[in-house]
Specification:
Length: 178
């Protein structure tokens, strides 16, 4: 509800949840505390999604797909505006640590030859985030796994490592990440 209407009242949130407004206030003293709880839950889910993807240990293509599928699930479960969430220094530090984990992973993917090394700095991470966002919301009719298949394929075909064929045509070295 808050994703659709960030200004939604506690009363309307309670009604949508099928509970009385007092029930919500027993757990959260204010709307701000409710939002903090939602943001904390989303952040913890992102951290778990990154951990579960095993970005440092799993084979790169496997880790990439797991990460994308996990984040699609998080985005669909917790579709809230992150701008307000990042105003808190502790939350921002945790988010920055998550972004760093993904950046280290993308460098590993580049070093392993899965991604092109000639991209502008930061491009791989920004493009991945945008594709995941699109797969999360524009392809909501697909399961997270199928949406991840599409996003990962598009990602690797778009910025995947390339080689020249004997005829001089550019060919993707990795036709499929899986």
């Amino acid at each position: 509800m808050l994703a659709a209407d960030p200004g939604a009242s506690i009363a309307s949130i309670a009604a949508e949840a099928g509970v009385d407004r007092r029930t919500v206030y027993r757990r959260f003293r204010s709307r701000e505390e409710l939002l903090d709880g939602i943001y904390e839950s989303r952040l913890a889910a992102v951290e778990h999604a990154i951990e579960d993807a095993r970005l440092r240990e799993a084979p790169v293509a496997v880790a990439l797909h797991r990460y994308v599928e996990n984040i699609i699930t998080v985005n669909r479960t917790w579709p809230v505006d992150l701008t307000r969430m990042l105003a808190d220094d502790d939350v921002r530090a945790r988010r920055d640590a998550s972004v760093h984990e993904v950046d280290v992973f993308l460098q590993r993917a580049t070093d392993d030859g899965l991604l092109r090394p000639d991209l502008p700095e930061g491009w791989a991470g920004v493009l991945l985030a945008q594709l995941v966002r699109l797969a999360s919301h524009q392809q909501a009719h697909l399961s997270p796994g199928r949406a991840a298949d599409m996003a990962v394929d598009m990602y690797l075909q778009g910025i995947g490592a390339r080689t020249l064929s004997p005829t001089g045509d550019t060919r993707h070295r990795h036709a499929s990440p899986l």
